[in-house]
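Title: Request for sanity check on Exo-alpha-sialidase prediction

Description:
We are preparing a figure and want to confirm that the structure record we downloaded matches what your pipeline produces today. Could someone re-run it with the sequence below and paste the raw structure tokens into this thread? We only need the token string, no images.
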Amino acid sequence: MLPLILGPRYNIRVTCDASPSNDRSESTLEVNPTNPYNMVGSSKRFTDPHTYAFSLAAYSTFDAGRSWQEAAPLGLLAGWDGVSDPTVAFDDVGGAYLVALPFQGPEPMAIAVYKSTDGGLTWSPPNLIHSAQGDDKQSAAGDTNPASPYHGRVYAAWDGPGGMLFGRTIDYGASWRGTGANPVGTSLAPDSFGPQVVVAADSSVYIFFIAGNDIQFVKSTDGGDSFSNPATVASGITGLPGQLPGGTFRTPTVATACVGANATDLVVAWADYRQNVARIYYARSNNSGATWQAGTGSGMPLLSGGAVSAPDQHEFQPQLACTPAGDVGCDFYLFGPKGGGTTPLIDVVLTVSADNAASFVDRVTVTEMPWDPTVDAVWAHGDPSITFIGDYFGLAASPLGFFPFWMDTRTGTQEMFTARVAVRPANVYIRDSSSDTGTVPSPGNHWEAPDLIVRRQQDGSTVWVDQDLLRDGVTDHFIYGKITNLGPNPAENVTLAVTVGNYPALDALPGLEFRYPQDWYPGDWQTVAVQQRHLYLGESAPQNLTVGATRIFGPIRWPAVQIPQEGTWHPCLLAEARGNNNDSAGGLNGAPVLVAPGTCDYGSYFWGDNNVCQRNLSYAHVFAKAESLIELPFIVGSPYSHARLVEVIVHKDGRLDGVPMILELLPPRKGEKPAVPDKTHLHGAKLAGKHWNLTHRVAGVGFAIEPGQMLRLKLSVRMPENFDLDAPAKVTLFQRNDSHVMTGSAILELVRAHARQADKEPKKRDAKARKKGR
């Protein structure tokens, strides 16, 4: 039987705080309906965990969770000490709404809404929509279906004076109201704890909540103008004790819910203690809540058979989500001794149903290692006998799979982590080199990218020959890629996406260090300087790939006006094979080759992921019977790097021993910092004025830099007359950070020109110098 999900998956650290006072917990995560690679999350961020002082922080990703950005602190109104209990919702055009709970001292006092129109990077000032002592435990959801008569509306519910209260916006957050023409705060039920709002594809709005020992819900079919009376989903549930055996953290019972791909399918889950051990129970409806399958009426165990947890393991804080394909996921914390030890630890577990929530038999552990809830513990409301890890955590679902969003203490501090769990995973593969067979890290020269070509006409699907660049200002070029599915499942909606790196601000050779995903994804280019170094060409039409199949994807058009003349800049193609169920990162449990493991210095080297590659395009010329000077400007460093020292190492092959070579540091441009040569990292080279003569076959020059600083250099090679190019001659450049991390390489390869080139210019022998970079 083919796997539905795999685990553990590579865990991505979302936050990095040096101070143990900046604990994070109680999180939420949502996917932008207009872009599945953009997600917005939020959590509590403490400033003093022992006095329970905190507010909310907001996070965003534009590359499906591979890298994250934290927004500036959310604004507070006068009299607020902070905001709490995060919940995030999207409207149908990508607007994000963070609904928060302002508080003063220990008491919540209102409901406020922050809005972001840039994918979570920045947020508006708070919009106070309701003010009452006792407002608490809010939830929100948006109608994102463009075919819905109420598309764009966002609904919120919370506990407050008078029971469960309600508010909505019908004008993208400009104003808020209750049901009908009533003000915000319409009471929908007299007794409520922890309401959960979900919106079905048919625009129906459901709000599930706990009322005593029952799970109940109300429903609206008119865009929130009115709601049904409360109806029961399950009765006689057994809530969790205040603290689980062996734990000090508080454990309230909160319901979670989701709607299936079919608008009539509903699922509700909660943590239950009826077996004297915490277990997840659930109920389901296939007729829009008219009837419920809930066992004997009090719910059914979520897990059965071989998926059942061990007797000493407690399941709690379930979160439900559903992919657009209809796969229902539930993640939860699993608390108890691990690996034969006696100390109770916590893992994140995900289970997925492929049969409309009839059964949950596919279960994986998401966390790479369990975490200890006693580490860097928060004292709940300042009480050291009751600690706090959040009352809930996040789970998002999209066409790309499931994304748990949890608190973890593996770093010694409560930090946020996430992981991508693809459903029916496939290994989508595009070669980095001719010797690349799908193992990772890939072997060989990672700049060759034999599965990526440039054509000057739209014939790459039948003529697989790279034509490089014409640069005549008239001819459009077309990019094609070969993509293979290594299995174990068919690959869904596979596309080829291509970015031109180092566009258009460079002179010739590209920088040696590209990082995935930041250099590949436009959403990660947040500064003008970075934006000027990239050009996104687009994405091919999607295709499905059976296991073992290889197909050609493209064309992706590269307009002639965006291909400057030779010598003005050097383009480097950064390609990615994407897919809904792509699970192709390399290493144990899908871990890529990280630039800086254990930090939030995001990025990995592309040769550690099967689905990305790099192809370089550059030319220089050597004239027959004449001395020729080849000058190759290039860049070292990365705007994402934290390195303090960068070394440029030049290695020429034996045939070039007598060929003069010079390395020159180019003057900084306006706004750039000057570089300082490091004399302790100089070998095989001799300073001569403002440049270095490379006197040995292997030579290196080091420079002290600031984090994120990039340097422009130039390698000059003076080729003698009649140099024999019957066999290629190579010069290899390496970049090394902080004396030990090789981050990239480049090869200047001198080869004999093609015959047709010589025919055009019969009076000279033309050689091509091709830059290759890793």
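Thanks, this matches our download. The first strand starts at residue 12 and ends at 13.
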